[in-house]
Amino acid sequence: MKNSPNRILGVIFGAVYVLVGLLGFAVTGGVGFVATEGGLLLGIFEVNPLHNIAHLLIGAALLLAGLANVRAAKGVNGTVGAVYLLLGIVGFFIADTAANILALNTADHILHLGSALVLLVVAIAADKQVAPATRPAV
Questions:
Q1: Sign of the C-alpha dihedral, residues 68, 69, 72, 73?
Q2: For residue 59, which of 6, 18, 42, 74 is within the disulfide window of CB 3.0 to 4.6 Å?
């Protein structure tokens, strides 16, 4: 198994997001699945059950890709980073609306933007020697 910045980051972020997803269920008892307001995780991050499931799925994708190979880790880190960048920006505009089905708050937006920055920088800047996937000859 070749260690690389993308694989290491994927495994670390993946494990953290899986843990956050699991811990979120401890504070979302009685919270509606897509409630616009949720329980507070660590006293500051608002979550609902859908948000917890999203953390579990994203964490699993990062973790599995990080354990698989450099190309998978780089691709998933970049993809998750791009999605978090979009979510971090859009989150500010939907926070007080019915579209806020993940119960996002300002702390979530900042964390999503921070995660996006780290994931995107590593996906873009590290492991440049990894060749892009090629299509099989037809």
A1: positive
A2: 18
pLDDT in tens, the chain (138 residues): 578 999 999 999 999 999 999 999 999 988 999 888 999 999 999 999 999 999 999 999 999 999 999 999 999 999 999 999 999 999 999 999 999 999 999 999 999 999 999 999 999 999 888 655 555 666
One-letter amino acid at 95 equals A
CA separation for the pair 38, 31 (Å, rounded)? 6
Domain ranges of the chain: 5-27+38-125
- Between the alpha carbon of residue 23 and those of residues 5, 46, 56, 77, 121, the distances in Å are 27, 12, 10, 23, 28
